[in-house]
Amino acid sequence: MGLFDFVKSIGEKVFGSKDDPAAKIREHLESRGLGITNLTVEFQEDDGKVFLAGQAPSPETKEKAVLLAGNVKGVAEVFAEKLTAPEQKAKVEYYIIQSGDTLSKIAKKYLGDAMAYPKIFEANREVIKDANLIYPGQKIRIPLP
Q: One digit per residue, pLDDT tens: the chain, 145 residues?
């Protein structure tokens, strides 16, 4: 599973059967205050593909937009080739939450210190609303030292 692949059957429910999914996903992204200009969202409901376009102010913002869109129930893949951003300079890894995981456990594994979990939470603040409320299948960013 790559960065842009997600588990279609899980995630945050942001649209219903009578909603325009693309509009609801766009509202979802905009509600997080990412600062993406000229944001457009296309959604192919039959295969769960989302296409993002616009200008992100940073590579982290682009990654967060992809994660936010991908962690929506009904989304299987996110394509962000048309969502431009400056070049990534920081080391980042991606992780899919497993049953029994906590941010502390993930911090211990990747950062060597369970008490470093706030770094992971901050790197995913738009994706994770509460550090104690993560779910299996959710994909997050791990900022590496």
A: 345 788 898 889 999 989 999 999 999 999 999 999 999 999 999 999 999 999 999 999 999 999 999 999 999 999 999 999 998 888 889 999 999 999 999 999 999 999 999 999 999 998 898 999 999 999 999 999 8
Whether 131 is in a domain gets the answer yes
Q: Last residue of a domain, which of 84, 101, 118?
A: 84
Range of the domain at 132: 92-143
Cα 22 → chain centroid:
16
Q: In this structure, what token pair is assigned to residue 81?
A: 């080739």
- Residue 9 belongs to a domain: no
List the 77-84 sheet strands across, edge first: 37-44, 49-55, 77-84
Is residue 143 within 8 A of residue 123, CB to CB? The reply is: yes
Q: Are residues 101 and 73 in the same domain?
A: no
